[in-house]
Amino acid sequence: MAEFDIQQLVLVSDATNDAENLEHLGPTMKDVYRNNKMKPFLDQLGMFIRRKEMEIEKMCNSNYQEFVQSVDRLLKVRQGTVDLKDKIHTLNTDVQLAGKELTAKKRELVESKRIQENIATATETLKTCIHFLDLANRVNVQVEARKYYSALRIVDEIQVVHLRSVIQFEFARHMQDCVPILQHAIKDAVTTEMKEWLFSIRTSQKAMGKLAMDRMSARQQRWRDRSSKGFKLKTSHNVNSAVEAAVNEESEIDILDADQVKIDFKPLYQCLHIYDELGQRAEFRSNYAEDRRAQAKLTLSSMTSSFNLKDRNTDNFESLLQDIVGFFIVEYIILHSTTNFRTQAQLDELCDLVTGLLLRMLSEGLEKCNDPDMFLNVKLLLMIYIQTMESYSYPVSKLNDLLLTLFRTYADQLETKFSANFHKLVDEDDYTPMLVENQDEYNLLQMSFRFREERSAARQGFPRTLPFSKVVPYCCEDIKQFVTQFYRFVEGFNQEQSEMDELVKDSLDTLLIQHVHSVWLKKLESRNLSQIAQIIINLEYFQGACTDFEQMMTELRSTSDTTKISLQATGLFRETRRSAENRISELVNSKIDDILELAEYEWLPSSVQEMHSMYLQELVSFLEVVMSATLLNLPESIKTFVYYDVLEHLANMLHSIFTDPNVKHINQNFVATFNMDVSFLEKFVATFDNANVAMTFLPLRQLITLLLSENTEEYMDPQIRSQHYAQVKPEDVTRMLEKLMTAPVAAAATTQEKTKRRSWGKVLEWGGLKSSSS
């Protein structure tokens, strides 16, 4: 075992180095001691050493000559080495001497290099400082050149990039403290420029507002022309409606592209950009909103002092509206060209503020204004303003409410104005047929109102007399103006249209009823037949004109309702015309009554008069004048009515005289005389060539004929009675026969007279007469 360990150590020693031998020696020695084999191991180790010595000796014996040669060479080499060592020593001494000088030079070089580096560092530092200071100076230069963003970028560059490299210097630390001041100075400068811009654009924004309102006015006219060709477009769509906007889109040009508008928004956008870079957008948004609010108030307050409508001049008001429109167009452009800066709610709030101030100003300015034309001018300007603002999506409901208020006031004032005109026209009318001098006057008259003439009248030359008096065309012309001005005010309204249509109708009714109809109705109380006859003619034409007015309002009304408008005045004119007809009859009848009061009859004359009574001549003369002159221009239907009514009244009055119950006795001579008077009147009535009018005297004629008949008993024959005496009342027959029977009889009565009296007695005793009377 010990031998094996020795061999193992030898093998290991051959294959490994000394360090590794020691590693293997430890375990081997440990095994020897553990197994208590130290002595055998030492014996083996000794034997191993002797064996190796023998091998070495053997090897030396076989290589001795070569060994001697090697030793000789080694000795020679040793001598050479000693010589070389001496030379090296000498050389080292020389090198040491040279090295000392070189070291000194090197130290000098290192010191010089350090100094050079310090100089370079100082130079670089100075360059950095100079660049830093130059940048700081360029901030002011850029601000003066109004290049605020560049100035702000330089400040940021100083703060972020350059300040760190020079922070060890006092001026840099001072500059670090000044960075916020520089930023604030840039902000103040850009804000100042923006405010100057806000002030400077006032002129430009007014030009922009004027252009926008002029364009809206042209747009209104284009739509008015287009919608006039289609009723549905007119009544269902207004300016700014979807349909109108689609039609107008192709002709609309961006207002900023117009030559009249020169507004550069750069100062605002630049200011907004700077505030964004500083992270202070909210502050700028708030300040800008407050500035614009104050500017809007200032604009209105400056105009309020000079706003006055008493001089009927709306130039200042129009200029104010243009200024407001321009102001809000600028806001609209800013809203849509920026992000998260202005909101629609802010603009709506500002618009409401301006609207409130505008409403108050208008209310004060129009408070004592009584001129409807001024109200119309204000409305036209307001409508253009409203539709312009609406086209830019601003709220206009309060302004529309104002228009409604203005409309009601305008309606009252227009009614007052035209009522005075109408009253004056009606009151100052001469109530004579109108004379037209030439064709031009006639054509103008036809434009005022449509009227028809008889063909015979139409063929007449000029001058020509027309049936109506001048008040008719004058009033019709005023009414057309009244309605037209009403609807001119209404034009463009988007709401309450039916209410406005009703208001127009009611106002026109009021004018016609209170200031035309009422005046004519009052004039009917006069006793001037010519005037009343002319009023009847005027009423007839006015009644026809009312139909035209109704048609005109139906066509002009703002709603799509096709129901025909009906004026109450039309019916009143019709009723008043009937009243006027009755009034003529009443006056003529009154005159007839006055003349009949002159009638004096002898109830028991001894003979028959040779001619009719004289009062009848006066009566007929009066009726001839009335019929041929006073009532000449009346329509045939009215003349027939008046003739019939008057002659019926005359017949009734004569019948009353003839059958007067207070007269107890009459004779045949009275009946014959009265028959002569009635015959005279019948001849006069026959000149009218009207069967209906001639029938008015029939009851009286049949009664007289019966009393003068040679055979009164024929009355008892039903057939004869129905043919010849149908209009005779039995009680009149009884009364008149009793008067004849009780009259004194002459002593020399003829046989014929006695026969008549017997015939009268039979009729009186006839039961049919008594039963009819009862």
TrEMBL record:
GO biological processes: Golgi to plasma membrane transport; intracellular protein transport; vesicle tethering involved in exocytosis
Gene3D superfamilies: Dsl1p vesicle tethering complex, Tip20p subunit, domain D, Exocyst complex subunit Sec15 C-terminal domain, N-terminal subdomain
The protein's name: Exocyst complex component SEC15
Domain Exocyst complex component EXOC6/Sec15 N-terminal positions: 44-213
PANTHER family: EXOCYST COMPLEX COMPONENT 6 (PTHR12702:SF0), SEC15 (PTHR12702)
Keywords: Coiled coil, Exocytosis, Transport
GO (cellular component) term, any one: exocyst
Function: Component of the exocyst complex involved in the docking of exocytic vesicles with fusion sites on the plasma membrane.
Family, per entry: Belongs to the SEC15 family.
Pfam families named among the record's database cross-references: EXOC6_Sec15_N (PF20651), Sec15_C (PF04091)
Domain Exocyst complex subunit EXOC6/Sec15 C-terminal: from-to ranges: 398-739
